[in-house]
Design a protein that fits this description.
With 490 residues, the chain is an alpha+beta fold. It contains 18 helices and nine strands.
């Protein structure tokens, strides 16, 4: 055994010994029940580290809707079912609205941007993001017009394959990304542009890595994992490359900035820097802009494009449902361009889109929350800073609210007369103060892209294909790679 190995072994032993002693000192009285953790590694051996939500669902049968697990040395609370999640995020909104300061988050984003920040910084960035998402694109052409135009481009791209099998990942990713890029930068990329392909590649790779056990191990043992090579190192490299692109872009825009003619979100942020107010320097600085742009690009592209890909897979799996949607499109829209005003006249299509989101279950764990102060919740004591997972998977599969929770069943959102029926447990964007800032935009994109695609194309599987509806491994529940055939209807 060489000297380096000996020294590394000593470091590991000392680290684990120190961690164990720290764990022993922690005293959680009246904490939610859960499986007994092992020293240092917690419940790691009993959890499905690739898809923890599956284990959480099983544990809830034993311990109820509020229980605890230990991820490494971090005691974590899991909330299962709509009632428990609603109670926390709506009835106790202020207490459960923080984000945890995990090692990965702190290294990548610190307390900047929107998704992972807390306190006043989060409030300022959320207000700015909401106003910018609402405002930009509302000039000569609305956001709706841009989505319609992009949907037409996507149709033409799919028609270019002339009914032959193709992988839809890149084109759908690029089409959806162009909508958020229009808001951020006032530009559009061709689907084969090397720049957008590289940016999409960085985001997709990180989303895949974020669902791996390596990342969960990093959050549990950061000091140790920094000494070990693995995918967690690639995540940091990808973030740095994406941020370099963002920094170059807004540096160029700063030179061209006309505060009287702000064209996009980045322009508006840069203009805020020049207002001379205390918050101009305290919050509207370049680090916040870097992280915010990354948050909006990643969230604006990933979840919507993944939902659309689930939609195409489910349409080729259930051609009779695809046909019903197309019949409604013919009856209501005909050959005109689909617009948002059509949605209220199309209950079946609306129900299918909702069911795609529910069944697709894109963010099964939700993003983690943390308690902002000590709280007694449902009879249990949660200290300030407790990490909490309001499990969206358990809500979207809640048997008390969905008749056939494990099946693709659009009738979950239709009444006996075929009218659209709301369901309060439908919360794919989460609820409360940390709900998705881009929810309105995403709903618009899903309807316009989906309706336009099915108006012009019929989707079929490749001959002999086995259609697998189980999700791929990753930070989100995306479909496994699949090819489709797009047959022109016009």
């Amino acid at each position: 055994m060489d000297l380096v190995t000996v020294l590394l072994s000593i470091v590991v032993i000392l680290f684990l010994a120190n961690a164990f002693m720290k764990q022993k000192k922690e005293n959680y009285k009246n904490f939610p029940p859960g499986p007994t953790p092992l020293p240092i590694i917690g419940n790691a051996l009993t959890l499905d580290m690739s898809k923890p939500y599956k284990t959480f669902m099983e544990l809830s049968k034993t311990y109820g809707p509020v229980f605890s697990v230990q991820m490494g040395m971090t005691k974590t609370v899991v909330l299962c079912g709509f009632e428990a999640v609603k109670d926390a995020l709506i009835n106790h909104a202020d207490v459960f609205s923080n984000r945890p300061y995990g090692p990965l988050t702190m290294k990548v984003a610190k307390n900047y941007g929107l998704v992972s920040s807390n306190g006043e910084n989060w409030k300022v960035m959320r207000r700015f993001a909401l106003s910018s998402l609402r405002d930009y694109g509302m000039g000569k052409r609305t956001i709706e017009d841009k989505i319609i135009e992009e949907a037409e481009c996507l149709v033409q791209k799919m028609k270019s394959y002339e009914g032959k099998p193709f992988d839809n990942l890149t084109s759908i990713n690029a089409a959806v990304a162009n909508i958020i890029v229009a808001i951020l930068l006032s530009r559009r990329f061709e689907y084969e542009d090397p720049t957008i392909l590289r940016l999409l590649g960085l985001v997709n790779e990180n989303v895949k890595f974020l669902g791996s056990p390596w990342i969960r191990l990093y959050d549990s043992f950061p000091t140790l994992m920094d000494l070990i090579p693995g995918p967690h190192k690639k995540v940091f490299e990808n973030v740095k490359e994406f941020q370099n692109f963002t920094r170059e872009t807004f540096t160029k825009q700063k030179k061209e900035l006309d505060i009287n003619d702000q064209r996009n979100l980045v322009d508006s942020f840069l203009a805020k820097q020049q207002e001379g107010k205390p918050e101009s320097t305290e919050y509207y600085h370049n680090e916040n802009l870097l992280i915010l742009v990354g948050n909006l690009f990643g969230a604006g592209m990933e979840t919507t494009s993944t939902t659309l890909r689930w939609g195409l897979l489910l349409m080729i799996k259930y051609p009779e449902i695809q046909q019903k949607v197309q019949n409604e499109i013919e009856r209501v829209i005909g050959s005109a361009q689909p617009q948002m005003e059509h949605r209220k006249e199309m209950p079946y299509t609306d129900a299918v889109i909702h069911e795609i989101q529910r069944f697709g279950d894109i963010l099964p764990h939700n993003l983690p929350h943390a308690t902002s102060e000590d709280v007694t919740f449902r009879g249990y004591f949660l200290p300030k800073g407790t990490v909490v997972f309001p499990l969206l998977h358990s809500v979207l599969r809640d048997k008390a609210y969905f008749e056939k929770p494990d099946e693709f069943y659009p009738e979950h959102f239709l009444d006996s007369k075929g009218n659209f029926k709301k369901n309060e447990a439908f919360i794919p964007f989460s609820i409360g103060k940390r709900s998705c800032a881009g929810e309105t935009l995403a709903k618009m994109e899903l309807f316009l892209f989906f309706a336009t695609l099915l108006q012009h194309l019929t989707f079929k599987p490749t001959p002999g294909a086995r259609l697998d509806l189980s999700p791929a491994l990753g930070g989100t529940n995306a479909p496994k790679p699949f090819e489709i055939c797009a047959i022109s209807r016009r």
